[in-house]
Amino acid sequence: MSEENIQLSDESSSEEMFEHYKFIADPGQEVLRIDKFLLDRMPNTSRNKIQIAAKNGNIVVNGDKVKQNYKIKPNDEVSIVLPYPVRELELIPQDIPIVIAYEDEELIVVNKEANMVVHPGYGNYTGTLVNALVHHFDNLPTKHQDHFGRPGLVHRLDKHTTGLLVIAKTENALTNLAKQFFDRTTERRYWALVWGDVQEDGTVTGHVGRSLKNRKVMTVFPEGDYGKHAVTHFKVLKRYGYVTLVECKLETGRTHQIRVHMKYIGHPLFNDLEYGGDSILKGTTNSKYKKFIQNCFDLLSGQALHAKTLGFQHPSSKEMVRLTSELPDGFQGVIDKWEKYTGG
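The structure corresponding to this sequence follows.
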């Protein structure tokens, strides 16, 4: 039996948080239920998780979705998508205000504020969005029977990125959403203010991986010999001469993808502390302009990037959920300043 374990994303290195496993049954494979077949090869996964995955179409054999009672045959090619295993951290409930854009028994969509880390980790065990959600879940008047007690993350936003983020409340919703993100059927549109005069709409394609010089940031590897496949589509919303407001549509969800892709094509995000956008890259050298830019920077805690639109299929009703959010005050304030500076 050959095995390929492709970890597409994890909570330390990507916005998306799911795993993709691929197995090929031996030529002499005995006839066996697929849930038993997978359980034997994935000792850290429960039968319940596998059954939920099958229910949601996350198990594919030879290109077709199968149920948990499918019988494995020799040479079958099996793949399964699962939510990334939750790190065993004690989650401390904290009464931190959150802006809820949508909520039902199975999931919640929040409008994340700037300067908020999504998940506890080294150096950030408290004060995160997950801490706030644990408190929120604990204080709900009623809970879904399948509620599993902790927020289920399938994607993330950077600390300084604002906007819409969906979190599962149940194992079924978590598994279903993980498959949607893996299949790239979700809709994610971001607004970004970038340095430079972007002349036309376009697409950036280039593998994204950790920089070989600085492991704290990502970089683009155009030849594809390192990193993970990444595609960002962008279109111009408004030009201000020295900066441009663009809308970015994610086809993939790699760590810092929009930030590193826009830098790669010569348009770093405005006030991006890690990718060189926090200094004057375009414009004049007079003191009035420098003061204007500094006043804009002061309105932002980091890069001018906002998750504006989020769309996905509801795990139970199968209806499309599509939400949009307004720019936060800081980002909007910067746009207002550029409008005034350029005379609209």
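Helices lie at 34-41, 47-55, 129-138, 171-183, 257-264, 287-298, 329-341.
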